[in-house]
Amino acid sequence: MARLLAGRVLSSALVILGSLVLVFAILYVLPGDPTDTILDPAVATPEMVANLRAQLGVDQPFHIQFIRYFEKMIQGDFGQSLVTSEPVLDKIVEHFPATIALTVASSLVSVTVGLVLGVLSAVHRNRLIDIVARIIGLFGISMPTFWSGILLIVLFSLQLGWFPAMGSNGWRTLVLPAITLGIVGAGFIVRMVRSSMLDIIDEQFIVTLRSKGLTERAIMYRHALRNALIPAVTMIGMIVGEMLAGTVVIETVFSRQGIGRIISDALMAKDLPVVQGVIFFSAIVYVAVNLLVDLSYSVIDPRVRRST
Amino acid sequence: MREAITAKAVWRERGRRQLASLRFRRIAAADALLVLAGAVVLLIIACAIVPGWIAPYAPTEMLTDNILKPPSTDHLFGTDYFGRDIFSVVVHGSRDSLFIGFASVLIGGLAGGIIGAVSGYVGGIADTILMRCNDILMTIPGILLALAIAGALGPGMFNIVLAVAVASIPGYARVMRAQIISIKSRTFIAASSSMGASPMHIFWRHVLPNALSPLLVMATIGIGTSILTGSGLSFLGLGLLREVPDWGTLLSQGRGYLTVAWWMCTFPGLAITLFVLAVNIIGDRLRDDMDPKKRRVRG
């Protein structure tokens, strides 16, 4: 178990390092010069641009720039915003709690709604509940969040006045965004759980269980569900990542403060250090969540525990 | 005694017929849904190709005495702040929105397919390097990667396409590689090889044609995903400010008038949802038809 843990942690660290190099490389290769963000191209002289480039270190070759960035980063320095010269890490730390709250809330919505509907849908195949669950699943993965969010605002804030349409203070502001984002994840989970449960119901061991006289309820909930959960858990890791990424759009729709908002504002202002910082930070969170999911297999599935 | 048997037989026959008609009805319902989805897709594609035949007004025509009017028989989807007929703008806007979806799937699917095919067929060190890069690319959620790329490239239609395409590469590469590897190990490949066929011949004639269908199914569903991601990017303001806005841009424009004109956001979003929904229904069906386990019992 300890060896498994060490191995997984090490490979996760390598993946994070790889994604740092990759994002750094993409932003390095793409056109666009950070000096354009700070200096007005109309009035800047070539010397001013050259001086600024030297000051920012962007005149150095790729590997030197990356090593410098990396050295600072492991000391907790993600660079400074080109626009406000505020340290990027401060910005992230300040806005992260709101994003985490939304990510957790919408993941909870996804997982609860997804699991319950998915299981009911497979158990009562082709009945009303199945049809409803499949329609919800299909709509969940087909609606753009910026549309479903706006519809929820029109209905529940503007018409009924139940929940606020914007802001990020208090749990009431969390309800509509969490539902908007949660429906997407729920859609994926419903479809996944349903199809993996149906696959398992077709398997031989279920026939064996039936022939030994087990009740249908015990077969479904004790045996089929437990086996169907394994692919669903993998999905949950992915869902948390998708929810985290989805906050970019949702925070704009609901005017919430969060790192999604920072990144879209920074993109508009061409503030690359901020963009880089937020993406690296999200990648770290995403990899960490998937590491946890990976490790939780051994708890859920005894076969994994034994084989390692 | 005889009569009892016949009665039983009649009952059994009737039961069988009822079961058959039930099954028929279920399949017919599934087919009707498929036909409906196909019709929606074709209609929206028609809007993209010949918007002028379908839209009653020009998308840029500003009817100054008809500002922010709710939906009516004259203006099916209402009018916006400039007095444009929203139905006409949505019809014309389908061109850019669908372009993002189809072009990015084409580029992403092709690039991912090639990477996956090389990785799976060549194997060895090339496989290791490509797949590690792929794993890394997968750790960054699609829309974040697309945002970073689109942000660095600046706003613009082709930049959005490129961003969405790059973000979709890892998925295609993975599926293609798995498929190639599974076909490579089949007996008929060994047979072809033992008869002296060159690796290139085997790849083009035997491996590739057999590996393509899962990629095509994935690409079908990918069109929906790409339209969602692409219109998300243009909703965030990365779409080019063109004369005729695409659906995502249209929604972000309408967002400012939410309190006075709900129709400005509702209909462009409905267009996105309908198209993606239809594509997903078709994609689901294609995937089920490919799966031999599901081909027998549908539902």
Blueprint of the fold:
The complex is a heterodimer of chains A (308) and B (299).
Chain A lengths: L1 H28 L4 H5 L7 H11 L5 H13 L13 H36 L4 H15 L2 H15 L12 H30 L2 H8 L4 H38 L5 H10 L3 H29 L1 H6 L1
Helix pairs in contact in A: 1-12, 5-6, 5-8, 5-10, 6-8, 7-8, 7-10, 8-10, 10-11, 10-12, 11-12
Chain B lengths: L1 H48 L1 H4 L31 H37 L1 H16 L2 H12 L3 H28 L2 H8 L4 H37 L11 H8 L8 H28 L1 H5 L3
Helix pairs in contact in B: 1-3, 1-10, 3-4, 3-6, 3-8, 3-10, 4-6, 5-6, 6-8, 8-9, 8-10, 9-10
Structure description:
The complex is a heterodimer of chains A (308) and B (299). By secondary structure, chain A is an all-alpha fold. Chain A has 2 domains: 2-74, no CATH class; 95-306, MetI-like fold (Orthogonal Bundle). Helices cover 79% and strands 0% of the residues of chain A. Chain A contains 13 helices and no strands. In chain A, helix 5 crosses helix 8 (172-201), helix 5 runs antiparallel to helix 10 (216-253) and helix 10 (216-253) packs antiparallel against helix 12. The termini of chain A are close together. With 299 residues, chain B is mainly α. Chain B has one domain (20-298): MetI-like (MetI-like fold). Chain B has 11 helices and no strands. Chain B has helices at 2-49, 51-54, 86-122, 124-139, 142-153, 157-184, 187-194, 199-235, 247-254, 263-290, 292-296. In chain B, helix 8 (199-235) runs antiparallel to helix 10 (263-290). The longest helix of chain B has 48 residues, at 2-49. The two termini of chain B are 41 Å apart. The relative contact order of chain B is 0.13. At the A-B interface, helix 1, helix 6, helix 7, helix 10 and helix 11 of A face helix 4, helix 5, helix 8, helix 9 and helix 10 of B. Chain B: This is Peptide/nickel transport system permease protein. Chain B: The chain crosses the membrane at residues 32-54, 98-124, 136-154, 160-176, 215-241, 261-283.
